[in-house]
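Checklist before submission:
- one chain only
- standard amino acids only
- sequence pasted in full

Submission:
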Amino acid sequence: MSRKHEMPILEKPICDFTGGAVGHRFLYGGGRNQIMARAVGMKAGKTPMVVDATAGLGVDAFLLASLGAEIILIERSPDMHRLLEDGLARARDIGGKVAEVISRITLLHGDARDLLPTLSPEVVLVDPMHPPRKKKALVKKNIRLIREIVGSDEDSVELMKVALTAASNRVVLKWPRRANPMEGIGLSSHQITGKSICYNVFMVG
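Returned file contents:
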């Protein structure tokens, strides 16, 4: 996936798995009734192995791992990969339940298009970086800072095609609820929709 060249930035996004909104969801998030958990196929007695092909700051991976899932995170940006390594290490050092969650997360550095076919994933989660909003309202600060590092995922269609070939059960595309559908990809099998996010589920098994 082609992103702009790595460059130094004055401010970095925060990779924190224990504080703020992430920590709150870890403690009070609603368990497997959360829409992301339902989208990846978590049901009573079923916990799929998930590959997060667009890791970002690892928030989705951490929350799925907190529900018992084994997660493989893929991040191709060296800067983002270093932030993730640091955030995972700090969370692991806390010990207890947080460290137990982190033990279920494996971080890989590379291009998901190359790595997915080698992993035989059951479920692939794809959450591409979208172009900046045209609305005047600013997106969350962390998202803006991530975009400064990685740019927009202009090759997300290609990634989706690889994911649909590699996954044995389903591919979940996390997409803005009011955005136009991703071009070049067929209709999803079904959708699970939240207030601002839509999980497009492509069953491939």
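Reviewer check: Confidence is low (pLDDT under 50) at residues 1-10.
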